[in-house]
Input
Amino acid sequence: MNIKICDDNYTIDEKIDNLLDILHYIKQHHNQSLTYRYSCKSGICGSCAVRVNGVEKLACLTNIKEQSEILPLKNLPIIKDLVVNNTNIPSNLTKSAAYLEQLSSENNITQEDIEKIDINSNCILCNSCYSSCPVLEINQDFIGPFALARVYRYTTDKKETTYSTKLNSIQTNGVWDCTLCGACDLVCPANIPIKDSIIALQNLSVQNGYENPAFSSNSFDMGFQSDFGFDPNSF
Output
């Protein structure tokens, strides 16, 4: 099997197809300096996320074929080879207040309540969605899909007494900047409906008095005047 990792080509003589096993083999037999990240080897920690032929995958769960190309995740600083800087994870979770702020023990938590937040709690913070996001290619200040999905999880948690800080924190470079392309859903190893979570956050924002800046009267008038050559307010 011939594969390309970053800028180097390797021939694998052994009959192995699991990507993480192949990385171990290459490091042992071909390139001791090859650098990659892994931990649990079972798709739980998310640390081995890379791009396989342009698609974000977990190395430990991915079998590859002849002529595959393995690259590091996009939209993140590369430390070495397949290892990227993941400090965006704690930074964006903190920035978006994606945690319990004011815990209440008074609300009765039902099994239905638990199931409502359970799927979004399965996020393993692998950064696959972050890498796949086209918005981050042009706006590095965008909070990113995983942070928005986490915010939604806490706005629907009955143990939380307030979510005003969360909603306020995602209005700029956040919930309205998402194009709803669904690329994050396609690569999420936990199958979290990230796009639906962001749509729900947009609806919740409107219900709490926020407005999509693209639909504001000023933005519409400026765009209308620019596109059609006249000011609609002049009539």
Summary: The first strand starts at residue 2 and ends at 5.
